[in-house]
Amino acid sequence: MGSLGTANVEFCLDVFKELSSNNVGDNVFFSPLSLLSALSMLLLGARGNSAEQIEKVLHYNHMAAFLKPEFKDSAECSRAGRLHSEFGVLLSQINQPGTNYTLSIANRLYGTKAMEFHQDKSVIVEMMYQTGTFKLASINKPQMQVLELPYADNKLSMIILLPVGTADLEQIEKQLNARTFQEWTSSHNMTEREVEVYVPRFKLEIKYELNSLLKSLGMTDIFNQAKADLSGMSPDRRLYLSKVIHKSYVDVNEEGTEAAAASGDSIAVKRLPIRDRFLANRPFLFFIRDICTKMILFGGKLASP
């Protein structure tokens, strides 16, 4: 995985853990790629400690050595500019012409001119069902299944982390970091096999104000009018970041996952002994990523469908 891909995973899991701990028992959904894009725009205009804090939160602070040669030695570009250029190249690669999906990221910087399934809850849900050959892993510690469901002509995939046995989602979240995520989803653990898959249909549309979250990760100066340094975008030293709003939407249905659906007692399945079974009937984590670049486009937790 490239350096931007690594930064994407690390930032994604940082944000996920903060959102999960701040929204206990609730569904979680966000786009780390969209946030990276927006905060990279802000980084272009940040200087001094403000820039250093943003780079650290985005895990860009150790990436200079990994920049492509054509961006490394460009005297007219700052490090932030070179990173932003590589980010643009990566977005173009993800959203290539000819794909049957479109990645929409709408980021805006606004200026104001003032001075110059909860775990103990059971619900009936509509389940999608399909059988096929999928990549599946069985992890012992913590106990869980990891399933990869490809879609969009195998350009994207959804990775689901499902606790099994006596394990619960909290145990998975405690051990989840960039290293364990790479290990759990590696080819060493995930092998193709015949699987019966049951996944609930669900829609999530969630809006967050992320000021406190970003401050807790280390981006503090940029929100402080006395300390913020955005001199790269304006000579006005009173310029600072007042609010970060993030909104994302997902609709997991038969079309989006290329699954054949049924609900309730209408599902009639003849199980073959050689097939594995993946039954997502309890809270799980999910990540939608680009298969080629391994960039995580969306991440979330389904606690209550």
From TrEMBL:
Residues in coiled coil: none
One GO cellular component term: extracellular space
A Pfam family assignment: Serpin
Ranges for domain Serpin: 13-305
GO molecular function, one term: serine-type endopeptidase inhibitor activity
Keyword DNA-binding attributed: no
Sorted UniProt keywords: Protease inhibitor, Serine protease inhibitor
Keyword check for Transcription: no
Family: Belongs to the serpin family. Ov-serpin subfamily.
Protein name, UniProt field: Serpin family B member 11
Organism: Sciurus vulgaris
